[in-house]
Specification:
alpha+beta, 198 residues, 4 helices, 21% strand
Length: 198
Protein backbone atom coordinates (compact mmCIF):
# COMPACT_ATOMS: atom_id res chain seq x y z
CA UNK A 1 0.00 0.00 0.00
CA UNK A 2 1.93 2.99 -1.27
CA UNK A 3 -0.80 5.62 -0.90
CA UNK A 4 -0.06 8.85 0.86
CA UNK A 5 -2.81 11.09 2.20
CA UNK A 6 -2.60 14.04 4.57
CA UNK A 7 -5.02 16.37 6.32
CA UNK A 8 -4.13 19.31 8.58
CA UNK A 9 -6.49 21.83 10.16
CA UNK A 10 -6.87 24.08 13.21
CA UNK A 11 -9.61 23.51 15.80
CA UNK A 12 -11.33 26.20 17.86
CA UNK A 13 -11.35 25.58 21.60
CA UNK A 14 -14.97 24.48 22.08
CA UNK A 15 -16.81 21.20 22.58
CA UNK A 16 -18.74 21.69 19.35
CA UNK A 17 -15.52 22.27 17.41
CA UNK A 18 -14.01 19.10 18.92
CA UNK A 19 -16.94 17.05 17.68
CA UNK A 20 -16.82 18.67 14.23
CA UNK A 21 -13.08 18.01 14.06
CA UNK A 22 -13.57 14.32 14.85
CA UNK A 23 -16.20 14.05 12.11
CA UNK A 24 -13.93 15.90 9.67
CA UNK A 25 -11.10 13.45 10.37
CA UNK A 26 -13.33 10.44 9.76
CA UNK A 27 -14.95 11.87 6.63
CA UNK A 28 -11.49 12.45 5.18
CA UNK A 29 -10.26 8.95 6.08
CA UNK A 30 -13.31 7.46 4.36
CA UNK A 31 -12.51 9.33 1.14
CA UNK A 32 -8.95 7.94 1.13
CA UNK A 33 -10.22 4.47 0.24
CA UNK A 34 -8.60 2.68 3.17
CA UNK A 35 -10.27 -0.70 3.57
CA UNK A 36 -11.45 -0.79 7.18
CA UNK A 37 -14.39 -2.48 8.83
CA UNK A 38 -16.94 -0.67 10.99
CA UNK A 39 -15.23 -1.61 14.26
CA UNK A 40 -11.83 -0.31 13.11
CA UNK A 41 -13.39 2.97 11.96
CA UNK A 42 -15.20 3.35 15.30
CA UNK A 43 -11.95 2.77 17.19
CA UNK A 44 -10.02 5.30 15.10
CA UNK A 45 -12.84 7.82 15.57
CA UNK A 46 -12.90 7.29 19.31
CA UNK A 47 -9.12 7.67 19.67
CA UNK A 48 -9.07 10.78 17.46
CA UNK A 49 -11.92 12.26 19.45
CA UNK A 50 -10.11 11.69 22.74
CA UNK A 51 -6.86 13.28 21.49
CA UNK A 52 -8.70 16.30 20.08
CA UNK A 53 -10.95 16.80 23.11
CA UNK A 54 -8.03 16.57 25.55
CA UNK A 55 -6.13 19.26 23.66
CA UNK A 56 -9.14 21.54 23.36
CA UNK A 57 -10.06 21.16 27.06
CA UNK A 58 -6.54 21.67 28.41
CA UNK A 59 -5.25 24.43 26.12
CA UNK A 60 -5.96 27.94 27.37
CA UNK A 61 -4.23 29.77 24.52
CA UNK A 62 -2.54 29.06 21.24
CA UNK A 63 -3.73 26.90 18.37
CA UNK A 64 -4.86 23.28 18.49
CA UNK A 65 -3.76 21.67 15.22
CA UNK A 66 -4.94 18.25 14.06
CA UNK A 67 -2.94 16.31 11.49
CA UNK A 68 -3.84 12.97 9.97
CA UNK A 69 -1.53 11.17 7.61
CA UNK A 70 -1.65 7.81 5.87
CA UNK A 71 1.68 6.60 4.59
CA UNK A 72 1.63 3.06 3.36
CA UNK A 73 0.39 0.69 6.04
CA UNK A 74 0.19 3.24 8.89
CA UNK A 75 -2.41 5.87 9.78
CA UNK A 76 -1.05 8.59 12.11
CA UNK A 77 -3.21 11.03 14.05
CA UNK A 78 -1.40 13.92 15.74
CA UNK A 79 -2.80 16.75 17.82
CA UNK A 80 -0.51 19.70 18.52
CA UNK A 81 -1.16 22.31 21.19
CA UNK A 82 0.76 25.10 22.93
CA UNK A 83 0.94 23.49 26.40
CA UNK A 84 4.44 22.31 27.31
CA UNK A 85 3.24 19.67 29.79
CA UNK A 86 2.94 16.02 28.80
CA UNK A 87 -0.37 14.36 29.69
CA UNK A 88 -0.38 11.85 32.54
CA UNK A 89 -3.20 9.37 33.04
CA UNK A 90 -4.92 9.39 36.41
CA UNK A 91 -5.77 6.11 38.18
CA UNK A 92 -9.04 4.79 36.77
CA UNK A 93 -12.13 5.28 38.88
CA UNK A 94 -15.59 3.92 38.08
CA UNK A 95 -17.22 7.08 39.39
CA UNK A 96 -15.00 9.52 37.45
CA UNK A 97 -16.69 11.26 34.52
CA UNK A 98 -13.38 12.17 32.88
CA UNK A 99 -9.75 11.06 32.86
CA UNK A 100 -10.25 7.96 30.71
CA UNK A 101 -8.98 9.38 27.42
CA UNK A 102 -5.40 8.16 27.63
CA UNK A 103 -6.54 4.67 28.61
CA UNK A 104 -8.88 4.61 25.62
CA UNK A 105 -6.14 5.72 23.23
CA UNK A 106 -3.82 3.11 24.77
CA UNK A 107 -6.38 0.36 24.23
CA UNK A 108 -7.30 1.38 20.70
CA UNK A 109 -4.06 2.46 19.00
CA UNK A 110 -1.21 0.21 17.93
CA UNK A 111 1.26 2.83 19.17
CA UNK A 112 0.72 6.15 20.92
CA UNK A 113 2.47 8.77 22.98
CA UNK A 114 3.23 12.42 23.54
CA UNK A 115 6.32 14.49 22.79
CA UNK A 116 7.35 18.03 23.70
CA UNK A 117 7.89 20.28 20.69
CA UNK A 118 9.39 23.73 20.20
CA UNK A 119 5.94 25.30 20.54
CA UNK A 120 4.20 22.97 23.01
CA UNK A 121 3.46 19.28 22.63
CA UNK A 122 2.29 16.66 20.20
CA UNK A 123 0.01 13.79 21.23
CA UNK A 124 -0.19 11.03 18.64
CA UNK A 125 -1.70 7.64 17.87
CA UNK A 126 -0.74 5.21 15.12
CA UNK A 127 -2.93 2.51 13.60
CA UNK A 128 -1.58 -0.32 11.47
CA UNK A 129 -3.69 -0.67 8.35
CA UNK A 130 -4.52 -3.93 6.56
CA UNK A 131 -1.92 -4.95 4.00
CA UNK A 132 -4.31 -6.88 1.73
CA UNK A 133 -7.82 -6.17 0.55
CA UNK A 134 -9.17 -9.24 2.33
CA UNK A 135 -7.70 -8.39 5.74
CA UNK A 136 -10.76 -6.39 6.83
CA UNK A 137 -14.23 -5.74 5.52
CA UNK A 138 -14.82 -2.49 3.68
CA UNK A 139 -17.04 0.13 5.31
CA UNK A 140 -19.01 1.73 2.52
CA UNK A 141 -21.57 3.49 4.72
CA UNK A 142 -24.18 1.12 3.32
CA UNK A 143 -26.80 1.75 5.97
CA UNK A 144 -25.04 -0.26 8.67
CA UNK A 145 -26.21 0.27 12.21
CA UNK A 146 -23.51 2.21 14.04
CA UNK A 147 -22.96 1.43 17.66
CA UNK A 148 -23.10 4.68 19.70
CA UNK A 149 -19.57 5.83 20.48
CA UNK A 150 -20.40 6.44 24.14
CA UNK A 151 -21.48 2.82 24.61
CA UNK A 152 -18.41 1.56 22.78
CA UNK A 153 -16.21 3.86 24.85
CA UNK A 154 -17.58 2.39 28.06
CA UNK A 155 -16.94 -1.16 26.81
CA UNK A 156 -13.35 -0.28 25.91
CA UNK A 157 -12.75 1.52 29.20
CA UNK A 158 -14.10 -1.47 31.14
CA UNK A 159 -11.70 -3.78 29.27
CA UNK A 160 -8.77 -1.44 29.86
CA UNK A 161 -9.62 -0.97 33.54
CA UNK A 162 -9.77 -4.71 34.04
CA UNK A 163 -6.22 -5.16 32.87
CA UNK A 164 -4.64 -1.84 33.89
CA UNK A 165 -1.91 -2.14 36.45
CA UNK A 166 -1.18 1.05 38.36
CA UNK A 167 2.33 1.34 39.86
CA UNK A 168 2.71 2.37 43.49
CA UNK A 169 3.60 5.91 42.44
CA UNK A 170 0.14 6.29 40.95
CA UNK A 171 1.34 6.96 37.42
CA UNK A 172 0.80 4.76 34.41
CA UNK A 173 3.05 4.74 31.39
CA UNK A 174 0.95 5.42 28.32
CA UNK A 175 3.67 5.59 25.70
CA UNK A 176 4.50 2.61 23.54
CA UNK A 177 7.72 2.35 21.58
CA UNK A 178 7.55 3.60 18.04
CA UNK A 179 10.03 4.17 15.28
CA UNK A 180 11.12 7.79 14.97
CA UNK A 181 9.10 9.39 12.20
CA UNK A 182 8.77 12.87 10.87
CA UNK A 183 6.14 15.12 12.36
CA UNK A 184 3.07 15.42 10.21
CA UNK A 185 2.43 19.04 11.21
CA UNK A 186 5.09 21.63 11.82
CA UNK A 187 6.32 21.58 15.40
CA UNK A 188 8.69 24.49 14.93
CA UNK A 189 6.02 27.09 14.27
CA UNK A 190 6.49 27.13 10.49
CA UNK A 191 3.34 28.01 8.58
CA UNK A 192 1.28 25.03 7.51
CA UNK A 193 -1.64 24.84 5.16
CA UNK A 194 -4.68 24.39 7.30
CA UNK A 195 -8.31 25.19 7.61
CA UNK A 196 -10.02 26.24 10.83
CA UNK A 197 -12.83 24.19 12.36
CA UNK A 198 -15.21 26.41 14.35
Amino acid sequence: MAAHHQLTFTVARSAAASQQARHHVMASIRTWGIRLDAEALDEIELAAGELITNAVCHTASGPVIVSVCQEGPVLVIEVHDAVKVLPRPEPLSESAESGRGLYLVSALADRHGADLTATGKRCWAEFDLPQRAGDRRVDQDSGRVRRPLSGHANEVVDRVAARARTPATGSVSHTRTRARRRTVASAAGKPIASRRID
